[in-house]
Amino acid sequence: MTNPAFYPIGTPGRPWGDAEVVAWRSLQRVQRSYAAEVASVIEALRARFDVAEYGRLDYPSGSYPLFAIRSRGWRDELPVVLVTGGVHGYETSGVHGALQFVERHAADYAGRANLLVVPCVSPWGYERIHRWNPDALDPNRSFREHSPVQESAALMRLVAPWRERVQVHIDLHETTDSDESEFRPALAARDGKPYEPGTIPDGFYLCADSAKPQPAFQQAVIAAVAKVTHIAPADPDGTIIGSPVVAHGVIEYDCRKLGLCAGITDASYRTTTEVYPDSPRATPEQCNTAQAAAVCAAIDYALAHESV
């Protein structure tokens, strides 16, 4: 009997070596353009914001500039807000939700907060609609000292000067049907482990940092997003993606232990959004708007509850 979940690369029970990574990489195809869909939008924002190239990814398949958008008129006495998107390049609304926030809402915080927005941490993954980088490594498990992942290391270098001053960090993600159809089976194959099927929640949820969960902050973000799209219910066992639901639409991870992006600063208020773009109840526009609404709610809560 064949195993329908067996991934077509590698040998069951044996972690991938270099040959398997090369075979996997050869299957990845460019499906959309970072330059046309992301970099061009960032370029248009230069008239209103400071845009800097904070690094460059150089891979045999191409070179990708990495961009950060900053508030014009940065003031050291103001709190710093970090917004990151596209850590997993395939998670579309993370990228375009961050850009929508800058285009439509960032000006509202002029003189109130310093904004640092990185819309697309992983452009190679964005173009190929993939979770990993070309080395079959997950950037969002690689935010650690001496990270072997270029995408993660570059972002950590960018943020380092403000790490202790960041008040809010919101990292924009998606949970998609392809997590179960492609990415989790690939992960199991890569690591030589059996694939264990999971469930995909229908709706938006948040992953708080268990080291600093800030439950009232998380619920403020959930309440704002609920005006845009539906919030994911818990599974019958009281979990979302296998983690206990600690409040409406909220689970928790130990971000630094897992090497997650949300753990790269000492921000008092930090969270990871998860939008579900494959829901029949949500459109791409709703998904982008939900991400932007989450960012606004996070900043608004922090400004209302922290004295500068």
From TrEMBL:
Keywords: Hydrolase, Metal-binding, Zinc. One of its GO terms (molecular function) is hydrolase activity, acting on ester bonds. One of its GO terms (biological process) is proteolysis. It comes from the Bacteria. Its cofactor is Zn(2+). Residues 30-308 form the Peptidase M14 domain. Belongs to the peptidase M14 family. This is Peptidase.
